[in-house]
């Protein structure tokens, strides 16, 4: 099993749009999605669940687009 990891990577608008567009195409076609984040390649299965989270705290607001799945053996 992989070691725990919690990273946040900032992207330019163009890079973000490209990644989201590829993700949307994968979701729409029912295919797995592959993305590299901070030097690690991540494989997202088509069974993943998608949520959108909104947070408000200390004068800041945040929207997170989350993709979650269980790692199968």
Question: How is this fold's topology laid out?
Answer:
Elements: H1 13-29, E1 33-37, E2 40-44, E3 49-57, E4 60-68
Antiparallel strand pairs: 1-2, 3-4
Task: Give a written overview of the molecule.
By secondary structure, the chain is an alpha+beta fold. The protein has one domain. It is built from 1 helix and 4 strands, in the order H-E-E-E-E. The strands form 2 sheets. Strands 1-2 form a two-stranded antiparallel ribbon. Strands 3-4 form a two-stranded antiparallel sheet. A hairpin with a 2-residue loop joins strand 1 and strand 2. The longest helix is centred in the N-terminal third of the chain and has 17 residues. The chain is globular, with a radius of gyration of 14 Å. It starts with 12 loop residues before the first helix and ends in a 5-residue tail after the last strand. The model has no long low-confidence stretch (mean pLDDT 91).
How many distinct beta strands? 4
How is the biggest beta sheet arranged? 2 strands, antiparallel
* H/E topology pattern: HEEEE
Q: Largest sheet, order of strands side by side?
A: 1-2
Structural class from helices and strands? Answer: alpha+beta
Task: Report the total helices.
Answer: 1
Strand content is: 35-45%
Total domains: 1
- Uncertain regions spanning at least 5 consecutive residues: none
Mean pLDDT: 91
**Helix share, percent:** 10-25%
Report, as a whole number of angstroms, the end-to-end distance: 9 Å
């Amino acid at each position: 099993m992989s070691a725990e990891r919690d990273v946040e990577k900032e992207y330019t608008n163009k890079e973000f749009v490209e990644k989201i567009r590829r993700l949307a195409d994968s979701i729409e076609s029912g295919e797995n999605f592959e993305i590299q984040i901070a030097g690690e390649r991540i494989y997202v299965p088509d069974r993943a669940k998608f949520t959108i989270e909104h947070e408000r705290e200390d004068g800041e607001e945040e929207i997170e687009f989350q993709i979650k799945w269980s790692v199968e053996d």
